[in-house]
Amino acid sequence: MVSDVHGNSRDLKRAGEGADALICLGDLVLFLDYADHSRGIFPDLFGVENADRIVELRTARRFEEAREFGNRLWDGVDRNAAIESAVRRQYAELFAAFPTPTYATFGNVDIPRLWPEYAGSGITVLDGERVEIGGRVFGFVGGGLRTQMRTPYEIDDEVYAAKIAALGEVDVLCTHIPPDVPELCYDTVARRFERGSAALLDAIREVRPKYAFFGHVHQPLARRMRVGATECVNVGHFASTGTPWTLEW
């Protein structure tokens, strides 16, 4: 199981070795690597120096300044066309690296409308849907909630909650974002809380699945904790670790 792949196709090719299936919890795209500002769509277009500056502003939570700075860089550039072209190149490489079978959902930086073009035979894309894997029922909900970052696949709380509710009874919950528990949402390096889902937390308490898996928070204060009967697990920042989380049942 992997999440937050962010362009790491090299390790993704080996992630499913010895497993019955690979589960991917989203964020395939690498727009900007906060650990290495030379990697990603943004520095490819505007250079490392500008990437350094926008990371500095975002890390300081000066989002309006970061947005204004970015808008100046994009002036005269067809932003949508440039980003889509770069994302398509990444998707072509990443989807080719997925083993068979793979079950995947979207992250907040993904562009869902492009996935059907790249998800070939053996790759099942799920969002607000259930599937049986190894005799257990897995429910998948992708994307993130609205933030000041305005990443591509952020949705309203009500829409997200409706997708969670549509899953019903499941053995395993698979989402990109964590439940709204402070220890699971706080990033110790970015020094901020990412948005978790209250609806997801409510479902964990009511449905009581055996596991709830997610990613999104790259350096969480707590990687796993129990909420009632459910083991909640951040499966890791695959872009940096290159190591999948293994579920043995």
UniProtKB/TrEMBL annotation:
UniProt-recorded Gene Ontology molecular function terms: hydrolase activity
Domain Calcineurin-like phosphoesterase: 2-220
Matches recorded under Pfam families: Metallophos (PF00149)
CDD domains with a match to the protein in the record: MPP_superfamily (cd00838)
A single GO BP: cell wall modification
PANTHER family linked: CALCINEURIN-LIKE PHOSPHOESTERASE DOMAIN-CONTAINING PROTEIN (PTHR12905:SF0), METALLOPHOSPHOESTERASE (PTHR12905)
Protein name: Calcineurin-like phosphoesterase domain-containing protein
